[in-house]
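Lab notes, practical 5.
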Amino acid sequence: MKHKRFFCLVLIIAMLVLSFGCSSNDAKLKKITVSEVTHSVFYAPQYAAMALGYFEEEGIEVELLNGGGADNVMTAVLSGQVDIGFAGPEAAIYVANEGKEGHPMVFAQVTKRDGSFLISREKTDNFSYDEMNGKHLIGGRTGGVPLMTLKYVLMKNGLEDDDLNVDTSIEFNNMVSAFTSGIGDYVTAFEPTASMLEEEGIGYVATSIGADSGEIPYTAYFANQKFIDENHDVVVGFTRAIYKAQQWIANTDNAEIAKVIKPYFDDTEEELLEKSVERYKEIDAWCTDPILTEQSLNNLMDVIEYAGELEKRVDYEEVVNTKIAEEAMK
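Output from the prediction step:
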């Protein structure tokens, strides 16, 4: 009887120790909030970092929020509602041009091309931009890089604003639903939405905007300077987790990537996710390291300048902090 009681006592103590140990480990995780511009396979490195535990390895717990557009993401960062924003670097350029002290700094790049695909209502085997002449295109909001890149591509292929109806009245989050309801001849969409539209027979991928536009820093992480200064090690750890995921993505087959990120796309079949990953790898959409180069930023400003949306060009060091990424990659 005494042995039995002793055994029970040891078991209880062991359970308490284990429970305390788990609580201690959880308590060590620094929780940070990240607002992403939209939810897409285009951001596979981020979801891979979460699924593979890379953030936890750096002592970080990430709460991911869907900002629903770059403007909303930047507003949330500026107001302190979230710690880190994940959107186009153009948002940081605009704020820097407003002269705000301690404005957000870009510290890690994830994608290097436009991730949208041009969806046509009619199926075409050999798409030519000439087919869009006189058509209705749902283009997204004015001032956003998706629309500016799209217009840049149209210009490169001989189409000006007067040649077709570029509809900028529909919010980014409502573009696909508007197209699904029968509005427009063309719309742009990210994966896996593009593949889903094809599968449902609503639209067909005509071309990749990213492949046709060339390389620009399309999506990156940024945070207020104050947050970076006060949480330097956390931001470096966050960036290191992203870098690990970038390397993993570059060296992993499409099927495995789809399997790993599947928990973040409950309503999408794994086979469809694999197709989406394949499309992004085909256009070389993902960076293999988080450093946003000066040439890349200049390419982005060229596109914004062409669209007439750039008040003035900014100095590279004014909006990009490379020290974070460089430290994370050591």
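Observations recorded by the TA: The CA atoms of residues 135 and 249 lie 38 Å apart. Confidence is low (pLDDT under 50) at residues 6-25.
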